[in-house]
Design a protein that fits this description.
Helices cover 14% and strands 42% of the residues. It has one helix spanning 3-22, and strands at 30-39, 42-51, 56-58, 73-76, 83-85, 90-92, 100-103, 106-113, 121-127, 129-130, 139-145. The strands form 3 sheets. A 4-stranded antiparallel β-sheet has the order 1-2-8-5, with no helix packed on it. The chain has a 4-stranded antiparallel β-sheet with strand order 6-7-3-10, with no helix packed on it. Strands 4-9-11 form a 3-stranded antiparallel β-sheet, with no helix packed on it. By secondary structure, the chain is mainly beta. It is globular. The chain has one domain (3-145): Thiol:disulfide interchange protein DsbD, N-terminal domain (Immunoglobulin-like, Sandwich), CATH 2.60.40.1250. The chain is built from 1 helix and 11 strands.
Length: 146
């Protein structure tokens, strides 16, 4: 195990242990909403993320292979097909864990459709919120756009 991976493991285990006892999840500091907008003839589903000050969620891609499992993701449900476009996020330079990218404050993830989706769209958004000291329990939030 690399030194970086070991440091991440130690930080995660200690933070998760403390926060699991508190029962606080990432959805308590990150609010997600979804809407459908027109872009010419195409439809674009917009997942808006509002991250409380002092917290961040990991970008997709996070820019660090050790953080791939906690990258923010959007998955369309029910067979809908679209191209998910993630914002680049902010670069964080960390001498212990290694460099990575995060989303802070507000970000929009867009899903572009060649054809307008029929009926309501369900979207599963996964993320994990962290601050400088600890990480909250990961969250999976189901949203529906009409």
């Amino acid at each position: 195990m690399t030194r970086r991976a070991f440091a991440l493991l130690v930080m995660t285990v200690s933070a998760v242990g403390t926060l699991l006892a508190q029962g606080k999840g990432s959805e308590s500091v990150v609010k997600a909403a979804v809407s459908i907008k027109k872009d010419g003839n195409a439809s674009v589903l917009v997942v808006s993320l509002a991250v409380e000050k002092g917290w961040h969620i990991y970008a997709n891609p996070p820019g660090n292979d050790d953080l791939k499992p906690v990258a923010t993701s959007v998955v369309l449900q029910g067979g809908a097909k679209g191209e998910v476009v993630y914002p680049a996020g902010k670069q964080v330079v960390d001498p212990v864990v290694g460099n990575y990218r995060v989303y802070e404050n507000s970000e929009e993830i867009k899903v572009k459709f060649a054809e307008a989706p029929k009926g309501p769209l369900k979207v599963l958004v996964s993320f994990q919120a962290c601050n400088e000291k600890s990480c909250l329990q990961p969250a999976k939030v189901m949203l529906e756009a009409k």
